[in-house]
Amino acid sequence: MHNVRPLPQYLVSRFHGWRATSYEDNSAWYRRLAQEGQHPRAMVISCCDSRVHVTGIFGADTGEFFIHRNIANLVPPYAPDGHQHGTSAAIEYAVNTLKVAHLIVVGHTNCGGVAGCHAMCSGHAPELEEKTSFVGRWMDILRPGYEHVKDLPEGEQIPALERQAVLVSIKNLLTFPFVRSAVESGNMSLHGLVHDIGEGKLVQAEDGGRRWVEV
Amino acid sequence: MHNVRPLPQYLVSRFHGWRATSYEDNSAWYRRLAQEGQHPRAMVISCCDSRVHVTGIFGADTGEFFIHRNIANLVPPYAPDGHQHGTSAAIEYAVNTLKVAHLIVVGHTNCGGVAGCHAMCSGHAPELEEKTSFVGRWMDILRPGYEHVKDLPEGEQIPALERQAVLVSIKNLLTFPFVRSAVESGNMSLHGLVHDIGEGKLVQAEDGGRRWVEV
Amino acid sequence: MHNVRPLPQYLVSRFHGWRATSYEDNSAWYRRLAQEGQHPRAMVISCCDSRVHVTGIFGADTGEFFIHRNIANLVPPYAPDGHQHGTSAAIEYAVNTLKVAHLIVVGHTNCGGVAGCHAMCSGHAPELEEKTSFVGRWMDILRPGYEHVKDLPEGEQIPALERQAVLVSIKNLLTFPFVRSAVESGNMSLHGLVHDIGEGKLVQAEDGGRRWVEV
Amino acid sequence: MHNVRPLPQYLVSRFHGWRATSYEDNSAWYRRLAQEGQHPRAMVISCCDSRVHVTGIFGADTGEFFIHRNIANLVPPYAPDGHQHGTSAAIEYAVNTLKVAHLIVVGHTNCGGVAGCHAMCSGHAPELEEKTSFVGRWMDILRPGYEHVKDLPEGEQIPALERQAVLVSIKNLLTFPFVRSAVESGNMSLHGLVHDIGEGKLVQAEDGGRRWVEV
Questions:
Q1: Which of A150, A169, B201, B209 could form a disulfide with B196 if both were Cys (CB 3.0 to 4.6 A apart)?
Q2: CB contact under 8 A, C90 and D70
Q3: Which residues are Zn(2+)-binding (chains A, B, C, D) (predicted)?
């Protein structure tokens, strides 16, 4: 713990700049958010990737989105086994406690996690098959998606697997009883998107994922 | 999967606004990010809470921060047991593949997850003790932190536990061999912060967490 | 060469201070920058003037901006004549080797170079017309800009010429085939700014320089 | 000129942050700098490289350093031929108009320009020998330095050439009559430094460049 260091100065300067502008101009809103707690209207599950910030592309204000970010925006299947499941905990909190109205899974192009999964499943990344590979074991969630893309022409497999990362996650979401119940009662809707980083486009799943349409 | 719905219109409209402005003005940068891949300088671990967006408070551009967000910004201890560990996968990818220079844990005030942990540990939330409670099992990570705060005056316990969420996570980070190795070789530094949502302030851990100082 | 002297002590002291703080806290980042090379997202062309440091006003970290500074932030026209062109070399390196996404020309108020150019062009500085005046010959680049301002009311001519220094430079930038190609392919965007030193304001060119708008 | 675009939003936000903090806290100083003009105590010639910002390593305030930055921090020999010499113009202005007390040439390790010069001079970069290569022609300034290093063991040549970039520049500076005169009259001193990016160290030339000593 002697390893904890002070923040780099440029981040300190930028924080002071934020405080003197965005915070000062909105301190009433921030104080109200602190006192009343959050009431976000949506949960977003997106990738840790530094090129995908959903607050930017959706112009989200503080307080709007409850955001869980993990490698490749994946949701594991429901498994109430008493172990630690960070993604499942975030979903449980969003649905049962915050009662969000939308649950949006946002995938993206050029995803390093998906590319790693493709390499692993096609036999080109034995190191990811090791029991000790956290990334490999995490990407196991996407293995069922690889089955849907492995017979496509080679250049189409990874883009298709990026969409599978969204579809597999939505399918797994529906294995959580409280998610299914919220969806079926009409209290929450599910949405699946893939963001194209280079072209700045967004496609969404329609017909249960059989079609992807640009928004 | 018939449950997937189109995105609400206000989000579509905002996305089109983003595309016509931020994307158009920076398309060269986005294309380069897509072609060359990401080279973020820091990984940030923060809470899913909708009131804490680190890209805002640090004026971060697309491509700067690799961000993992989970309930209460927690890191579990190193456990290469072959199970799915989303947080550990994100850390492994950031440290070993992206080789980030900074790993920053950002806690915050008014954290619902920390409050739940406090209620659970002090015997006021039996439902969180259930084996099937994902939030409860996730918050087990912070139990050792409760031991450090339980004898404080009542009003100080929760703020102290919010700081413990950062310190326990940093302590757990150092149980990952690749994190320890990167820190000890000087290739990565660790930082611990707590963001005060209502007051717009930021404190950072010094002296291994014995002191917290406003930046 | 016997004239080379040790650094003044106050600069040595400050350097040691920087090393013990900023460097120590960020040594991981500096080492990575040394090992992997620079990947700046933008080139900035600004004036040598001691009152204009773009890293400050834009909170830029080490590694973000590739910065060329000369008198009056000028770019000469494309001239592949085999002579030494320091500005053209910097632009060539930024665009062709570093592939920056943004090229930003930053002018400023109270510019001594621009004032000298105005004096020269209006017949009040014959010494700058001498063949041996390096400043005079350098400011020749801005002569076409004087034509656009010479009929304005006297008090408006120098501020207008400061903006012309940015516009003439951008016009000249577009005479470089590799700049034009990067801009037309959408791989790089051009930006023109004037920084008001005394008032701390920033205006940017819009509509190809017909309007200047405060950011 | 229709190609000029608005500044990316993250830079606008950071500028507003700077304005609300650094500028507001120092507006009296900025206004005085605008009204009285600059009186920098030193001119610094350094590289455009995004990893070398001398205002950072020397904790320089606005108004302290008049900074010229070009590829590889080079000064060409005195050549009053009526052509455009941006570096010579900056030196003339600093010495004759601003009358700086120090002229400091700051080289650095891992310099892309120096590496290119080494490749060119050792016959490994024919493209840099082209008449139309601005970088190649600019690096011609450093050719005499290559003669001093070409017989060293291979691994020592580039670091030695980085130091030669400083020494050749200082030698060329002394071919400018007004520089020589200011130095010989004791009104200005010359300094030569090389900054080690990865290790955060600074060495300075002593004994006319025969020795380099850590400051």
A1: B201
A2: yes
A3: 47, 49, 108, 111
